[in-house]
Amino acid sequence: MGCGNPFAIADLKPGEIVLDLGSGGGLDVILSAKRVGPTGKAYGVDFLPEMLDLARANATDAGVSNVEFLEGMIEDLPLPDASIDVVVSNCVINLAPDKGPVFAEIARVLRPGGRVAMSDVVADNGTTAPADGTAWADCGAGALQHDTYLAMFARAGFADTTIEYTHDTGPGLHGAIIRATRTKQITELGSV
Q: How far is 54 from 103, CA to CA, in rounded Å?
């Protein structure tokens, strides 16, 4: 399940290194690998071994070899500092229980000038995202409010952050495309 198409806005270029947070079956990683070509690379991080196995099988079936799927949490990425050019993610950030470390990790692994292109569920300011089981299954739970999302990116050292609503997902909740650029080292981790 996803809430948008981060790949469509990532503006990937040959030779870039891409990271997909919560890569699931690997579709965005495979598409990214094809776009960056043999001089680039696409990583996928997921915490479920079953999804990593599926992603590896899908990459083999797609004939791409410039991919690597890593087991890990998006709050503690298994990659070195300043090693990534572009981070993509499709409806995953809202599912993280503590989002401060997620934003800090995105900033840590991105090179200065690196880009974020993601989709996620974003709540209207003043709206509390539902937290029941159905909301988690529908990817509505854990959604950050619009201004909180912007503030989290700013605290993590990002500029030019934009949030564009693409569709409504529930009362006060929206599927959104989010773009940001890493400009400096993180200033504080923060926690939501």
A: 27
16 φ/ψ angles, rounded to the nearest 5 degrees: -75, 155
Residue 178 gets the label, from left (phi > 0), alpha (psi -120 to 50) or beta, of beta
Which domains, ranges and CATH numbers included, belong to the chain?
Answer: 6-182 (3.40.50.150)
The structure's pTM equals 0.90
Q: How many residues does the chain have?
A: 192
Residue 42: name the closest of 102, 6, 85 by CA. 85
Alpha-carbon gap, residue 146 to 156, rounded angstroms = 16
**What confidence tens digit (pLDDT) does each residue in 78-88 have?**
999 999 999 99
Answer yes or no: are the C-beta atoms of 64 and 34 closer than 8 Å: yes
